[in-house]
Write a structure and sequence with these properties.
The protein is mainly α. The chain is 74% helix and 0% strand. It is rod-shaped, with a radius of gyration of 24 Å.
């Protein structure tokens, strides 16, 4: 068995896993921020509408 190469492979695998987890966490933060901005935009656009009842409901027939 080649212990040094096995150790290097495990360390590299662990590092790649940690980098992937960090990137996923950053992506989740960005998505949460974007979602909050979209909700804020929708609520403010309904408040500024001339007639807030128009366009608030969508009828969908299948």
């Amino acid at each position: 068995m080649d212990i040094p190469s096995l150790s290097m492979g495990l360390a590299q695998s662990r590092t790649l896993n940690e980098v992937g987890t960090a990137m996923l966490a950053k992506s989740l933060d960005n998505l949460e921020s974007t979602g909050a901005q979209m909700v804020n935009m929708m609520t403010t656009s309904m408040e500024l509408s001339v007639n807030p009842a128009v366009g608030a409901n969508i009828d969908v027939y299948l």
